[in-house]
Amino acid sequence: MKFKLIISILYLFLLSSCVSTKINKNNQDYSILKENKYYIVKTKDRQTYRHFKFSQENNEEIIGFYKNKEFQISKSEIKKINKLSFVNTVVAVVFPIAVIATATAIVSDRLQMK
Asked: Chain-centre distance of CA 54, in angstroms?
């Protein structure tokens, strides 16, 4: 039971950590944001807007939808913009599960042989 709990916690950690940074203090090129794509926006006042659907940007702010309402965030308040990376998530989750499943099968077979 403890083993399953540890695996579940690691699995959740992997899912939450598979993001790619699009905007930060060193890279403020907002042209890389794609229209109608979802991002995680973190602001300097420690607010996090998950599932922010980007629509456009101007000189002072980014505009999109958050919780089905049009939402504007000042560029001067943005600390970081991340995007969930599906490919990284799959690689980070499937590979460890395959390794654990294989190791479990090998150990199980050896225990049955004894």
From this structure: 16
| Vertex 71: Cα angle to 78 and 45 (nearest 5) | 35
The pLDDT of 28-54, averaged and rounded, is: 92
Decide: 20 and 83 in contact? Cβ < 8 Å.
yes
Q: In whole angstroms, what separates CA 96 from the centre of its chain?
A: 18
Q: How far is residue 68's CA from residue 85's CA, in Å, rounded to a whole number?
A: 22
Side-chain half-sphere of 76: how many Cα atoms within 13 Å? 2
Q: Are 65 and 32 in contact (CB under 8 A)?
A: no
Give dist(CA 114, CA 111) in Å, integer. 6
Do residues 73 and 105 touch, judged by C-beta distance below 8 A?
no
List pLDDT tens digits, range 16-37.
567 778 888 788 888 899 999 9
Which residue carries 């456009």 as its tokens?
56
